[in-house]
Specification:
alpha/beta, 9 helices, FAD/NAD(P)-binding domain, 23 strands, 26% strand, five-stranded parallel beta sheet, 364 residues, globular
Length: 364
């Protein structure tokens, strides 16, 4: 199959690319003819609202952005497909369906996948939290089971905490546990961690800290060969691992496999490639939607300047960021530096910000 060549390919429909494309629309910029947005799905799911969707607080329509209208508004072609391999030397992408694409410039915003136990015999129904389209099918199926289903959520970060509460909200009689390899919400303030632990306790969610699950065998979760639990289903929300093709792409990657980028968001090894969001590695930029959104605003200026040969703007990660964590009942927790709050007003504010983001980026 002959490869098609494009001046610019936007690979992935993550937060940064959504913000960049919306910025082009607002500023009247049109990228080169033949520019494509490559996405595995026709919709982009907004991660900040996913726990609310699981909890029954939002509909699927409220949590997803249709990509076709957004692309059409700035002259970008939407292509449904998923990357199988990237060769940064030949500037070629191969897709899972065997199509091949060549590029002059490539922008990666392809997200990450949750790291999974190294050994898994398939004896437990496993549902990675990403990609969300697949996870959405899993938890919808669980609603058809009786309420005695046992679900374990693996992970100690914000996503694992929020999903455990969301599943409890929609399946109140289910037996839920949250299993962390370290502390719960490590890196957040002590006040927030105490609030979060108290909420889990009040809702009857079993919290297991300092338990690293490294094997799934015979229907059991094992840690260092010791049986931990035998759930009916396992949600994996263990943080971020790179897409498997990144390490073989020829791009300079960090020790974890994420693409190293400069302040201009360009690959350290291949300046015609840019990377943002979870797939990128930049000192001070954490794998969080807050950082990806701000990268997107800068990316909307960097790409036109790069194509025109102008000086590129630099992205400097903010030293501090606000965290808002949904508790699935309409309330939320706030964390900023060493300060934390919780309650219904925080939840209303989070909903206002999330729905505002969706309204601004939805053109359907």
């Amino acid at each position: 199959m002959k490869a098609t060549r494009h001046t610019l390919i936007l690979a992935g429909a993550g937060h940064a690319h959504l913000v960049a494309v919306r910025g082009w629309i607002d500023n009247g910029y049109r990228p080169p003819k033949g520019t494509i947005l490559l996405s595995p799905d026709s919709h982009a799911w907004y991660s900040g609202m996913m726990p609310g969707l699981v909890a029954g607080r939002f509909t699927e329509e409220e949590c997803a952005i249709e990509l076709a209208p957004l692309c059409k508004a700035c002259g970008v072609e939407l292509m449904i497909g998923e990357i199988a391999t990237l060769n940064a030397v030949s500037r070629k992408l191969k897709l899972l369906d065997k199509r091949e694409l060549e590029y002059d410039y490539l922008s990666l915003n392809v997200g990450s996948v949750p790291p999974q136990p190294s050994l898994n015999d398939g004896s437990i129904n496993v549902a990675p939290a990403k990609p969300f389209a697949a996870f959405n099918n899993h938890w919808q199926a669980w609603r058809g089971h009786n309420d005695s289903i046992q679900i374990a959520v693996l992970g100690g970060g914000a996503a694992a905490f929020e999903l455990a509460l969301a599943l409890h909200q929609i399946l109140p009689q289910a037996q839920l546990s949250l299993i962390c390899s370290g502390d719960l919400l490590d890196g957040y303030s002590l006040g927030l961690r105490k609030r979060a632990s108290k909420i889990l306790y009040k809702r009857g969610i079993d919290l297991r800290k300092g338990t690293r699950v490294d094997c799934i065998a015979g229907g059991w979760l094992l840690s260092n060969k010791q049986r931990i639990q035998s759930p009916d289903a396992l949600v994996i929300a263990t943080g971020a691992a790179p897409q498997p093709w990144q390490s073989t792409s020829g791009l300079s990657c960090d020790n974890s496999g994420f693409v190293r980028v400069r302040a201009t968001l360009q690959s350290e090894s291949h300046p015609e490639v840019l990377a943002t969001g979870d797939c990128a590695s930049q000192p001070g930029a954490f794998h969080s939607g807050v950082y990806a959104v701000r990268q997107g605003a800068v990316l909307s200026e960097i790409i036109p300047a790069l194509l025109a040969g102008r000086t590129l703007r630099e992205y400097q990660p903010q030293p501090r960021s606000l965290a808002l964590l949904s508790t699935a009942d309409g309330s939320a927790l706030l964390d900023y530096q060493h300060f934390s709050l919780g309650g219904r007003l925080i939840g209303l504010w989070k909903d206002y910000l999330d729905l505002g983001f969706m309204k601004h980026h939805r053109l359907d």
